[in-house]
Amino acid sequence: MIRFVLARAGAPLLMLLGGGAAAVAAFASAGQAPERRSVADGVYSAAQAQRGMGLYIRQCSACHGELFNGGESGPALADPEFLGRWRGMTVGQLYEKIMTTMPPLPDTPGKAGPQGNIDMVAAILHANAFPAGAREVIDPAELDSIAFD
Predict the structure, then answer these.
(1) Which of 29, 37, 125, 137 is exposed most, by the fewest CB atoms within 10 A?
(2) How far is CA 54 from CA 6, 14, 90, 98, in A?
(3) pTM for the complete prediction?
(4) What tens-digit pLDDT sequence spans the chain (149 residues)?
(5) If we measure between CA atoms, which residue out of 137, 26, 12, 29 comes closest to residue 4?
């Protein structure tokens, strides 16, 4: 058994028992900034985008169009203008906008809940032809490290 103990400098306490490679990796990455990724890196799953599409149709399409092409009361969410507005920002910022302002009042913003809104973000990424990946995003904080570029 190998033990790392809390040093006076405030290093994290880490105990390794047997084959603790995952713990070593966690210890090595502690305190580091999250890996910066791009929407082009496959940051959502196809199943996640499909679930998000169902929510989008029920909650968003009346304003933003069934094909994300915009409507009388909402802009397109899948076109070069949309991408231009979000260039240099993060997927987390899009998620936050959806959570705090969509659907607009008098309805209840964020009513799809955190995971539902992450799924809708996946549907928007899919509609903009960004590739799906193998892993679903489940933590809203993870979205802050994914850039529109």
Answers:
(1) 29
(2) 49, 43, 23, 16
(3) 0.76
(4) 333 333 333 333 333 333 333 333 333 344 555 688 999 999 999 999 999 999 999 999 999 999 999 998 999 999 999 999 999 999 999 999 999 999 887 788 888 999 999 999 999 999 999 999 999 999 999 999 999 98
(5) 12
